[in-house]
Specification:
Oligomer: single chain
Number of helices: 1
Number of domains: 1
Order of helices and strands: HEEEEEEE
Shape: elongated
Length: 91
Amino acid sequence: MITEFGKNKVVQSYNESISKIRLNETIIVETFDVKSSIGDTLTIEFIVPDGIQQISKLETLDTDNNVLSVSSLYVSISNDTRFKYQVKVGD
């Protein structure tokens, strides 16, 4: 079993590795309003770029564009939207 300390270290490392988010396989977001790790949870908040009407795929990328994680989802976007993405390690 991974200890709380171990979970926190994994989240901190993951947070440090993420440099951008790719939406719907084409739109890159490199500016985050919030990108932080607290305990075993990583939180990233960003403004969805204009012109996006839905988010169907969200990928986190490192500086070399290696994909760190992939989330398939469906979020309808109707106007200016601040999106909050959270990853929890463990339970």
